[in-house]
Amino acid sequence: MYRKTTLPNGLRVLTETMSSVRSASIGIWADVGSSLETPQTRGISHLVEHMLFKGTQRRSAREIAEAMDGVGGNLNAFTDKETTCYYAKVIDTHVPLALDVLSDMFLHSTFDAGELAKEQKVVLEEIKMYEDSPDELIHDLFLQTMWRGSHLGDPTIGFVDTVTALTPNDLRAHMARHYAPNSVVVSAAGNVDHDRFVELVAEYFADFRGTSDAFTPDRPIATPATLIRQKESEQAYVVVGSRGLSARDDRRFALSVLDTLLGGGMSSRLFQEIREKRGLVYTVYSFQAAYREAGLFGVYAGTSAENVQACIDVVAEQLGALRAMPVADAELRLAKEHIKGSLTLALESTSSRMIRLGRNEFTLGREMTPEEIEARVDEVSAEQITELAQELFAPEQLGLCILGPVDAGAIAWNRDAA
User: Fold this and answer.
1) Residue 187, strand partner residues
2) In a domain, 271, yes or no
3) Which of 99, 108, 237, 279 could be 138's S-S partner, Cβ–Cβ 3.0 to 4.6 Å?
4) Which of 297, 359, 295, 352 is nearest to 82 (CA)?
5) What CATH number has the domain bearing residue 192?
6) Tens of pLDDT, residues 41-57
7) pLDDT level of residue 80 (50, 70, 90 thresholds)
8) Structural domain that includes position 16
9) Any idea which residues carry the catalytic annotation?
10) DSSP assignment, residue 265?
11) Count of domains observed in the chain
12) Edge-to-edge strands of the sheet including 281-290?
């Protein structure tokens, strides 16, 4: 039920109809994130996202909130390293209202100086919140360590000095440069009629004009290193990782299977070895940070300071085992079924489908059906898993980040042991 229409001004409209539900999720996507910012304006994309909720020529910030609250809808946004999305989820009969509010914010925000000053304080509190959330901060430190000096490596939220230096004119210039029909996608999933939705988008975006520069994805080179940062906390937070694959790499399906069997669930190797057998952690998992032209792969664990060395040793042992021994057929089947089952469950959400539409359009330039994904997952072989592990988990590829009350001198990190 996927359909795509490109309006005369270049704006792309994507829908996926789910006639069995009564809700609809709508997203307006801009092809810009923190990886397109200069070091001096780091955090501007995220601050623009915040400011679009602070008032338009027609609505105050309160009226924007009341418009969605008044119909039981959800209005929100997110900024990542390569995209920004403003979205709403409503009952199907309120799709016109949701699109009206979203387009009003997107096209007619005022960027009032007084509101900006208040919102800059809000973002500074958000930065402090991340600093007080070591389980999230460690992931930012991992990216900064492995992608030192790159745009993808720096945090999307920005830094105190860059965020506070931004002016209303900076935000307007940023939008003028990056928010244009050729770099914007409107996606919707749920109980929506494609033709009617296209008519509404054409109406609300009738005056949307201009052209933005083509997105040039950042291509940082992974620089494996060790970072141990002291922080007073009850636990220590550890990431061991390496170069990964980009979101466009054809081998990403094999990496997803590897990710799943290594640390993707309660039956995964890491969960069984580190939590179930040894009781060293409450949380341990593997993850991917995949972007259009670059990627990282990591293993995260939160543990007591005295258990950090043991966790690192087991992770290194498991990475080495993947390089040395082919995955058994039963384990491979289990990982594949886990991925396919998780995909099916996610597709019951209109929000998940709306987000897939936008991300696929920007990353791949097309929709990738669930059936195609499942077929590609089924094609993954044990040999492909071993080859990827040997390439990505080679000792010289591995980096280590630790955050917490850990003595750096007490940590033995021997990549060759992995």
Assistant:
1) 14, 27
2) yes
3) 237
4) 359
5) 3.30.830.10
6) 999 999 999 999 999 99
7) very high
8) 2-204
9) 49
10) S
11) 2
12) 226-230, 399-404, 236-243, 295-303, 281-290
